Amino acid sequence: MRDPQDVMMSVKDLRMRYGTNDVLHGVDFTAHRGEVICLLGPNGAGKTTTIEILEGFRMRSEGEVSVLGVDPAHADENWRARLGVVLQAWRDHAKWRVRELLEHLGGYYAPYSTDRIKRPWDPDELIAAVGLTAHADKRVRMLSGGQRRRLDVAIGIVGRPELLFLDEPTAGLDPEARREFHELVHRLTDDDDTTILLTTHDLDEAEKLADRILILNHGRIVADGSADALSRQIAGEAEVRWTLDGQRFVHSTTESTKYVHELFKQHGDAIGDLEVRRASLEDTYMTLVRQAESPLTEVGAR
Ligand SMILES: Nc1ncnc2c1ncn2[C@@H]1O[C@H](COP(=O)(O)OP(=O)(O)OP(=O)(O)O)[C@@H](O)[C@H]1O
């Protein structure tokens, strides 16, 4: 079961500078076991840089980072075996066949199997989980872009990671593959309590998957909360729409439940087509990113 005390990752005042270019300006966040966190932000905001530092692929300039209780800058193989990584684009392993490759890579994880976590994932089960059964004997270079992306995900989870990093995992996937991927994410968190940090530009996906959303803009976290909490923070008002005697009505209110209750008390069954609309994550995202663009406002910025 998820234990909110179980901190899987903690980042304090993380800063990154490339040459003279500061790209992370003091990023703070914590992730707990079994949480799915979506890292959103415009191109160049610093998402990949942040993830690469957490994965131990990039040295930070300043700040404290702990991933599975270890500083990634000084981590060992045992630590790495507990992580799963899906980068933006793998272009290797072209000559391997899908099942062979997963069997081969899975072999590296076998020594890290524990009583609680049996490593690696059975290749055929894994291939089925990512929807590649029909392509299991194909060479990697023969896969389509979307099939290759599914394989990337399989490679990322073959060692049954406790913590999984996914950088734009659904880029290039068709709607069906995308939905299957979402089911896989739910399966990983429900069955294995996997903690997941993923980046995406698909706000609908973030809303579906994330327990928590972090919005990074110009190297700063400008929002941290559930999709619901963020939309409440930004747009306190909801829009109530209904029809009465063939006429359409719209009313904006901060107390939609109370308002709807009053409507029914007054008009009962005569109310039709009732709809309550909160700000979408897209509205929230655009508002937060634009607010952070303006030097005069600091809403949500830390
Ligand atoms: N190796 C590097 N050397 C110098 N600058 C870099 C390097 N990698 C990234 N940057 C710069 O750091 C900033 C953040 O880049 P990063 O790739 O982390 O953004 P991102 O949020 O992942 O963007 P995207 O959504 O486009 O993938 C950008 O201004 C980028 O040009």
Automatic annotation (TrEMBL):
<keyword id="KW-0547">Nucleotide-binding</keyword>
<feature type="domain" description="ABC transporter">
    <location>
        <begin position="9"/>
        <end position="243"/>
    </location>
</feature>
<protein>
    <submittedName>
        <fullName>ABC-2 type transport system ATP-binding protein</fullName>
    </submittedName>
</protein>
<keyword id="KW-0067">ATP-binding</keyword>
<dbReference type="InterPro" id="IPR027417">
    <property type="entry name" value="P-loop_NTPase"/>
</dbReference>
<keyword id="KW-0813">Transport</keyword>
<dbReference type="GO" id="GO:0005886">
    <property type="term" value="C:plasma membrane"/>
</dbReference>
<dbReference type="InterPro" id="IPR050763">
    <property type="entry name" value="ABC_transporter_ATP-binding"/>
</dbReference>
<dbReference type="InterPro" id="IPR017871">
    <property type="entry name" value="ABC_transporter-like_CS"/>
</dbReference>
<dbReference type="GO" id="GO:0016887">
    <property type="term" value="F:ATP hydrolysis activity"/>
</dbReference>
<dbReference type="GO" id="GO:0046677">
    <property type="term" value="P:response to antibiotic"/>
</dbReference>
<dbReference type="Pfam" id="PF00005">
    <property type="entry name" value="ABC_tran"/>
</dbReference>
<dbReference type="InterPro" id="IPR003593">
    <property type="entry name" value="AAA+_ATPase"/>
</dbReference>
<dbReference type="InterPro" id="IPR003439">
    <property type="entry name" value="ABC_transporter-like_ATP-bd"/>
</dbReference>
<dbReference type="GO" id="GO:0005524">
    <property type="term" value="F:ATP binding"/>
</dbReference>
<keyword id="KW-0046">Antibiotic resistance</keyword>
